[in-house]
Amino acid sequence: MVTEPLVWAIFFLPLLSFLLISLVIRPFLNRYGWLSGGLLIVALAVSFGLSIWVLRQHNQGADLTFAAHTWLELGDASIELGLLLDPLTTIMLVVVSGVSLVVQIYSLGYMRHDPGIARYYAYMSLFTASMLGLVLSANIIQLYAFWELVGISSYLLIGFWHDRPAAAAAAKKAFIVTRIGDVGFLLAIIYLFFQGAEFAAAGLNPLHIPDIWQAAQPLATGGAILGGAALTWVALGIFAGAAGKSGQFPLHTWLPDAMEGPTPVSALIHAATMVAAGVFLVARFYPLFQETREALTVVALVGGFTAFMAATLGLVMNDIKRVMAYSTISQLGYMMAALGVGAFGPALFHLFTHAWFKALLFLGAGSVNHASGTFNMRYMGGLRRQMPWTYLLILIGGLSLVGIIPLAGFWSKDEILTGAWLGSDLVDPWVARVVFGLLLAAVLLTAFYTFRMIFLTFHGEFRGGGAQEIADAAARQEPPPASVSEEVHRAESPLVMVAPMLLLGVAAIIAGYLANPQWVKSILTIPAHWFAEYVESAVIFGHLETPHFNFMIAIISTLVALAGIGLAWLLYQLLPSRQAPEGEEGEESQGELAEPLTKAGPLHTLLSRKYFADELYEDVLVRRGFYRAFAGAVDWLDRNWVDGLVDFIAGVCRNSGRLLAQFQTGQVQFYGAVIVLGAVLILVGYLIFGAGLRG
Amino acid sequence: MSLETMLIVAAILFAIGLYGALARSNVIAVFMSIELMFNAVTLTVVALARYAAPLAIREDIGSVLTGQVFAVFIITVAAAEIALGLGIVFALYRSAESVNLSEANRLRH
Comparing C-alpha atoms, which of A350, A218, A370, A394 is closest to residue A292? Predict the structure, then answer.
């Protein structure tokens, strides 16, 4: 029997771990930092078990609605804390606690030699607790608090190596850029807060999430409590917050920079869970989006464009983690686009599968870094011989990302493409068509950059690793990047790192088909189309058809993906091996990487400079727009108006003082003369006007 | 001798004294001018006591002499003031080597 304290425990166990680590282990037992890892792993294992159990119970129809607890009474508004358990929540609980658990085990190996390991696990506990609290929240204020806690723990983890300037800058950037989106979310909450009277008239609480859903639904008398333009703006505000967290265009610039954090952090936060919070948020308020065609169109187009744009950027990155970062942005774009065209179930299915295989890819990147000492793929190559397990697992993750049957990504990507192809009555058909085109193009790009990454990393000859990169940087008289290590030991990573990757690899193989079986009645008690139907039951207003497997789309997308893989093979495998014998210094030139994409000239420059988005934001918006124009205007106002007023008052005092000081001559006789003059004036005045005074 | 004559004489005396006190630069001359003003006032007080005090007050022998008593007071105070003032003048002369009033502005700043 699921009781309320047991559900709360899912959230409180990692929080307790955070408190114990930061209050006990970190101050007193810092030498035994691994203790903190063990503590968090135990806490998360229990949380994960509870999450699975809650999911099972909920799936079997157990009643999991709990009354909310009043936290604050502010005038007429009442802020409550509560649990909201629906299919969305239960699935997110499993994903978050599961991926986090695996990542924490991996971190035991990856962070073993870091002196800050206790601090690392303290932040990780805080992050996981916040994320679990976020998905459990039944109140929008409660949700917002956890939302910001996720933001701050992300800031702390990106800047974990805070002595590296790049990491500190990346942490700041992540915090500020997501904050821009959060302004929209906050405005939506404030608007809801001030609608208290209208909500109360219908017996609803404007901050309680199911009540907000209810309010957006059309009334029998026409209109809605929350409807029309106001609903669109509230939905767009929520989407702005989601776009910031999920790295959707135009707020995507922080995510690649966030790769400055430790790799397990990237795997957990910037691939599997936190960035999925944006998608979760839109899904959480989906009953609102269902009622506003305009907001959904924006979501669909932004998502589709982000999926395509981020994929083009992934083509040219040399940092293996940045390739994956753009891939994450692109995949989040898929989810947003799916939500936008009304494919609610596929979006969550992709969120579910993507969490496993993207975490796997990131952990694989960490494993590669462990061996080669660098993240720069120009200095890798040929690692498949030394690292067979990592190679195999990255290949599984990569094929899953590309969408090759029968891996997890295939099933969910196919559902999204089918959903976009079929469209729905929530958006105009042209929107769905545009999104479908963008997503299909992104499939080609995804296949290309994924296999470019795999070929550069694991095939060909080894190009020297971190030691070579440091030597090259020294030859150019530049400081090497802080993340590069001179230690190159080309060997498989320890078991504590490979085992979690194996778990994720298994998940990346089976999560797609097992969660949503096709063509059979059931697999191991999991009925056919279980995931789709379970998630569909989260849609309590209206009806959303989750598209089932579509052969045509599957064949088209597989062919497109294979074309991308073939192109990558052609450019990075076939051409280099043909050209190599032609060069006379074949042996030496193997250390150099020929990059075929540079032949694209300006296009390559445009991509490798990330469409100049960073320049646009930092130079144009921040330096010129913000510093020069806005700050300049404020500075001018301050100097001329504020200071001017103060200067004016001071000037009046000074000048009147100077004027009056003329009378202080120090001449007693002058003073006497003035006194006499005054006395005479009083006397004369008395004589002239005194008649009146005497009555 | 009428009251008017006396008051006019006193006024002339006072005006001469006031002019001297405000216009002369020598401290001693200023002192003398101040004495002149004292005397003008004394004359006024005595004249008014003689001519202008109300009858009702004159019935009472004590009140009749009010003006004269004031005159004696003023003479006394003037004497004391001269003693004190001359002391200040001496001190001024010792420190500034001058009895010129326009130079005595050291307290201005």
Answer: A218
